Amino acid sequence: MISFLITIGVFIIMEGVTWLTHKYLMHGLMWYFHADHHQPKYEHVFERNDIFFVIFAIPSITLFYYGVEGGLNYLFFIGLGIMLYGLCYFMIHDVLIHQRFKWFKNTKNKYLIGLRKAHKVHHKHLGKEDGECFGMLFVPFKYYKI
Q1: Are 75 and 62 spatial neighbours (Cβ–Cβ below 8 Å)?
Q2: Within the chain, which residues score under 70 in pLDDT?
Q3: pLDDT of residue 94
Q4: What is the CA angle 111-116-119, rounded to 5?
Q5: In the structure, how many helices (H) and strands (E) does the chain have?
Q6: Rounded to the nearest 10 degrees, how much is the dihedral formed by the CA atoms of 24, 112, 120, 36?
Q7: Residues 6 or more apart in contact with residue 114 via CB below 8 angstroms
Q8: How far apart are alpha carbons 65 and 46 in whole angstroms?
Q9: What pLDDT score was predicted for residue 86?
Q10: Do 139 and 115 meet the contact criterion of CB atoms below 8 Å apart?
Q11: What is the phi-psi region of residue 133: left when phi exceeds 0, alpha when psi lies from -120 to 50, beta otherwise?
Q12: Cα dihedral 87/92/98/102 (nearest 10)
């Protein structure tokens, strides 16, 4: 049970980590890597912004490695929480919202529609200033209204 709670707790904490990283690093010091993501059309399959998947994967992989030393320990479940959040982020952000993969084109789900609306508001700003809605899975309730 403690393993499950660690995994879920880390998953929830990752939304805050993502919000902070997105607002202060991606729209700040690391804008060079994130800027192409705010352009209306992608020229290539990959964009510089994809480096953030690697940046977030490194701690998870490291925690998996040390989390199986001498049997499963809590580090494994911290890495699992990070990985599961990354998987959800990928499915929501790259598949559902940006349609980089055409798996889920239409949805009637109010939650998913709210996520799309909030992200659209975020992308209306093409520069790094004046951004809003920096989170991914938890967005203000006003975006869930139809």
Answers
A1: no
A2: 40, 42-43, 123-134, 145-146
A3: 78
A4: 125
A5: 5, 0
A6: 60
A7: 139, 141, 143, 144
A8: 28
A9: 92
A10: yes
A11: left
A12: 80
29: tokens are 């010091």
SS (H, E, C) 35-75: HHHHCCCCCCCCCHHHHHHHHHHHHHHHHHHHHCCCCCCHH
Return the structure tokens found at 37: 């993501």
The pLDDT of residue 132: 66
Contact 76, 63 (CB under 8 A): yes
With residues binned 3-state (H G I as helix, E B as strand, rest as coil), the percentages for the chain, rounded to 5, are 65, 0, 35
Two tokens, residue 71: 């049997």
Token output for 64 = 């998996």
